[in-house]
Amino acid sequence: MASFEEWVKPGKRRYRRIKAGYQNHPQDPGNYTGGKIGVGIQAGTNMSIAAPTLSNWRGHPVTAAEMQTLTEQEALQIYRQNYWNKILGTQIKSQTIADFLADMKSSGGGVKNMQRALNDLGESLAIDGVVGPLTLGAINRQIDKSVARLNNAFRKRQIEYYNSKQSFAKSVWLKSLDKDYPAMSETAEKAGLPEEYNNKTWIILGIGLGLLLLILLGWMLLKK
Prior knowledge:
The structure is a single chain. The chain has helices at residues 4-7, 13-19, 51-58, 64-68, 72-84, 95-107, 110-120, 133-145, 147-163, 170-180, 186-190, 200-223, and strands at residues 22-23, 45-46. By secondary structure, the protein is mainly alpha-helical. The protein folds into 2 domains: 1-71, no CATH class; 88-224, no CATH class. A two-stranded antiparallel sheet has the order 1-2. Helix 6 runs parallel beside helix 9, helix 8 crosses helix 9 and helix 9 (147-163) runs antiparallel to helix 10 (170-180). The longest helix has 24 residues, at 200-223.
């Protein structure tokens, strides 16, 4: 089963978001307590906790000063309660899928896009944006069949979601998706490659090392 601690550990996408610090770009709707550009207080975003999120958490519209002094401890509490617990993360059988879903719930569209992806794979879920027993069961059922296939179906839906948005950050979202949640190979999965290494970088590296070993073996045989 997946764990919250794995989701936020050093090296992971969420850890980098936590360490990213404070920003207050005027064209980012998440920097306004009203969730839209120019609506409410322009408080900014800290550790990827947006102004509306912190405002809802604290029960009042926060100021830029409050956002800037957000502690990592409180940010982790928000991530655990608002995102990890909401996707029933500890009950998901794959860390990769749990990480991906928790990150996309934070970034936007996540649960509905997962439900759409699950339906693409043959499930019959309501697209309600809530991970309940039916959605959790469908996630784990598809994980049992193929983590790679579920990852790729969810990734496809998330790319479509990002491309539908008119946002200055669209290219950043897509690059981040390619970096942190690239396509996975069902062939490599069937061959026993662990899910954390089932991505283009590791597969190319593995193929390269394999070819190098064959070349060395051939050279040694020729020397004889």
